[in-house]
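User: Predict structure, ligand FE2/S2 (inorganic) cluster.
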Amino acid sequence: MSNLNKTTISMIINNENYDDITVETRQHLGDFLRDLGFKGTHLGCEQGACGACNVLVDGESVRSCLMLAVQANGKKITTVEGLNSSEMEIVKDCFVKNNAMQCGFCSSGMLMTTYEIVKSNRKYSREEIREMISGNYCRCTGYQAIVDAVEDSLNKINVGV
Amino acid sequence: MDDLNQNPKLGAADRPNSYIGRSVPRERAKKLLEGKGKYVDDILLPRMAHLSYVRSPFAHAKIKSINIENAKKYPGVLNVFTIDDIEKVCTPWQGVLGHLGEMRSPTQYPLAKDIVRWQGEPVAVVVANKRAVAEDASELVEIDYEDLDAQLDMETAMDKSTKVIHDDLENNLFWTRTVNQGNVSEAFKQSHIVEEVTLDFARHTGVTLETRAIVADWDSSEEKMTVYHNGQAPHMMQSIIAKHLNLSEGLVRIISCDVGGSFGIKVHVYPDEMVTVAVSKLLKRPVKFVADRLESYSTDIHSRCHKILGKIGVDDKGKILAFEIDDLSGIGPFSVYPRTSAIETNQVLNLSAASYVVPNYKAKGTVVFQNKTPMCQYRAVGHPIAVAITEALVDKAANALDMDRYEFRKINLIPDNSYPTKTPSGVPLEDLSHEACIEKLKKMMNISELEKYKKESLANGKYKGFSIINMVEVTNPSPAFYGVGGAPISSQDGASIRLEGSGAVHISTSITEQGQGTEAVMQQIAADQLGVKIDTVRVTHGDTDATPYGGGTWASRGAGIGGEAVLKASRKLKENILNIAAVIMQSEVNNLDVQNDQVIRKDGGEVISLKDLAQIVYYRGHELPPGTNAELIATASFSIEGIPFVFTNSAMGCLVDVDVDTGLTKIEKFWAVEDCGTQINPKLVEEQIRGGVVQGIGGALYEECIYDEMGNLTNGNMADYLVPMAYEMPDIIVDHVTTNSGRSILGAKGAGEAGTGGAPGAIMNAINDALIPLNTQVTSQPITPEKVLKALGKI
Amino acid sequence: MKSPAFSYYQAKDLADAINVKKTDDDAVILAGGQSLLPTLNMRLSNPSVLIDIGNISELKEIKVDDSNLIMGAMCSHSQIMNNKEVNEKLPILNKILSQVAHPAVRNKGTHGGSIAYGDPAAELPAFAVLVNAEIILSGSDGERIVSAKEFYKGLFETAINSDEILTSVKYPINRNGMKLFFDEVTRRHGDYAMAGLVGSIKQNNKINEEINLVFFGTGDRPNEAPKTCEYLLKNEYNYSDIKNTLKNDIDFASDISSSSDMKAHLSAILVGRMMKELN
Ligand SMILES: Cc1cc2nc3c(=O)[nH]c(=O)nc-3n(C[C@H](O)[C@H](O)[C@H](O)COP(=O)(O)OP(=O)(O)OC[C@H]3O[C@@H](n4cnc5c(N)ncnc54)[C@H](O)[C@@H]3O)c2cc1C
Ligand code: FES
Ligand code: FES
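Assistant: Predicted complex:
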């Protein structure tokens, strides 16, 4: 390739193949996904602190602002637009029912962290839920509705039994 | 939890389609959770260019020269502008209002002209095909500065030796006001005890998770400016952009769709946003500016930054005789346009002691300039300062008299049966319920148990303390707030509602959505008042081309003012529907009602669906007798008249643990009893209150913009500027007392700011209660572990 | 903000990475990126190329034998927390890592990155110094081992030469009777500490024979406190004495989170907690 600051990558996003996309190597995954139209991934700080940009890479939540798009070459990405497993549908219902968001800017990141919680398939106390989501900043809610929603989800999904 | 409306003016709570008072899930929530929210940064327009600002690295400096040539040559750069270019299309402004006495703030230019006055002030703007490229080129803009003395400390701002920030002013004073009711000095003389305290409040800022963002799209063919803006007041922006860019106001369209939190941060006029609009006009193409997090710390308005001295005089029975405050605040180098930076101090003067009967009241406020980020109104304007100083003094007086803090409050609170009355500062009050709230709070908190818990803990070397505070919150402002002073800010809001051919109901409202649930609340009111199912109702908001004119969302006014407009419009539409139905169904109007999307006969029998009715009107109008008034659209508007604001009140309390080894405060519990009148959706109200409390906890324990001695903001990033996160936050128990506002049918007041206004005082008092056995107190917010340990003499 | 431009190189194996690193002084190793990318996004550094060592599988291994636990540089914090053997042999690591950032950061942040970056407020470097772990570096001249005590030279300065890569960290385990302690004081969960302590005590018949203390968040690197350890071997814990002795041991340095006085105070408090817990 002529320009060393660009490279061509492929990945699977929400179970669809995205092949041979040329990106600037400096571009982080969050911007890359947003440029592709996955606007549900939000950027709140671009320094790893707020968690709004969390996406799943090979099934693990990561900060998409702290990962280069090129690092995701060949990987499986899930954005909020693709968070459609039956468990996550229950989680989303519980978020709606508990009013666990106001402006919604933090929500996709919160859902990614909730995905991790659900995935671990064990019981959580409210305090443990608070610990898990302590890397996700929400300025609107008092966090309580989010804790309620996660707790409610775990009960409904019946994890850890 | 009261889950039903308690307002007889709205009709029986148990009728069909009674949505007001019910926690109906928000429809938009689902959309937001699917990642389908539409925020400004999501907008993509053809040929859209991106902006990056070159900002002052100095707090105060002369600009000797600017060289943009290298930046202009950088590949991908479209242009670079300085004030010389921008000035040609955008006029400067002045952040003064006419109704609050003399304000002295000089002209502010959209980009710095000759002098920079805070670190972060925009000096030049680079336009490029990508944001990253614009940033690359920003590094190539060469600016030669000559450093000037920075005036940073508000306490020395007025000293003779201090640098005056604006040459054309003789000193650094922006505004001052005094209030004097009764005879304070005489009352202090007669007081049995007099207590004093000085409190400090650090500067902090709003930290909306979505940063400020704007897309401007100038269409030169139509001379039309379309602006996508994550603001709170579209019509205000429309007027201001038209005025300063010399455009026809009707041809400026502001669209504000989803907004990722605002909290007052996004209701002001920012130089970089005005420049973005100007650049679009200059380049005749759409341009986008999204503040990054570092820019948002140094350029979003800051707030608080107060030092306040308070004094209370009390007789031997515990009756408050006199209350006096002297408040000093520093606002940065300019008063912010168009709301000005005087309002926070004005509110401190208005609201101190406002829950209590205080016959003699004196207050002085002084607002001075500084070379720091401009300061302006942020959530709960002035309330945290007013509440904290009041409640600190009340606790001190009660303790000095050895009186129970609850009993002391009870004898001094404005009685529930004494409205209408006035605050000690002379502002009208009505429909409040301090006594009922504190009673309820006391029960919820179980104060005798808390006393026991405190004692037992102390025996184990643990320091626990609790607090009870009372407050009023300013909501639903009338024109007296801004409009009267000359700002293009509407205090009236409008709603238009129509029945469509499909039977769907469509509302458009001038209130915007920042996540508080505007859409849901308007849907509920309309469905409730019309008698339709909630999913029949759609809402349009946040578009000056599509909605009625109005003020937007700030000062906790959306539900109370905008909601009343929707209510009135819905009632008009229902009247029209029933009149038409009476013709079609050949019935007395009085015998008809709308329920579940149908017009029914109260005495039973044949019904007609709204869909059928609408289709008769729209498609087969010939079936109606000639001259039938077949309007299926209604509009209404509402504004508060006769009083400056609709106040709400609340009582809050919290229980803290102060670790005297580390200085860390843990909030074990927080309680709030709020009276916001009719609650349209209790679940939304509750999380508003909790969110507000958590922001208040932020101010009380964490948040602070830290400057070094050169005027550099040293913690302007999300890792170093601490905001409350989930782990440290307590569960917050919320309950309500309901006193409907007599100013509207709906009876709703606001609920958005009480938590933020009350929590700082509640937390400070609880910490100081815990510290009583150690004979010390804290008086400076945020109450960091370090300040606690200093108070304890440990460091 | 967006990163300045740089190019990207995905190393095939260790030798490849070292090769590229050797030829370019401005090349920077990219491990988990959880410390590097924030600095790039804020334009605080300007590398020519990032050498991604994320695909070198040998760097992702965790090996355990009777006396050592060897952590490949590219093991993520989460991988280590979920490793059964680590949790059995060196359970304190799990406790430490649960205080490092948050799940999404721990999924990417690496052990090697944390040790190599050497943030003075980070937990792992202090722990490595406490147990004097062996830090294994590979360069163009082959492999060398630096003991953790020799590894940290100053603020973000380590013994890694410009052509070297940290490949693994070797921790001694099963050290007879050695009890370990970890605690830190943060204002919010997952933040870097205002002050933190990892410590160890070896006892014989309930008599303290050996005490080690390493502080983090206190100075320009993990701070050992030999005089304080010596004091504690001879005396009961006493807050004021400990604080004074600590001040002799450590040049406490203020940072944005707290003043040097605060750090000295908290350090003394943490020593008190440790003596209480381990005795
Ligand atoms: C929000 C947030 C909170 C955090 N909180 C904490 C905390 O509380 N405690 C804590 O300890 N850490 C914390 N971290 C940092 C985190 O632990 C990092 O992952 C870690 O410090 C660096 O690891 P990395 O793999 O991400 O390294 P990178 O960011 O990839 O690299 C960091 C530096 O080390 C160099 N480097 C990395 N690996 C090697 C190697 N093998 N050989 C040579 N050089 C190498 C790189 O060149 C770079 O200069 C936090 C991070 C974030 C974003
Ligand atoms: S944007 Fe990635 S953590 Fe904030
Ligand atoms: S809902 Fe707005 S940030 Fe969480």
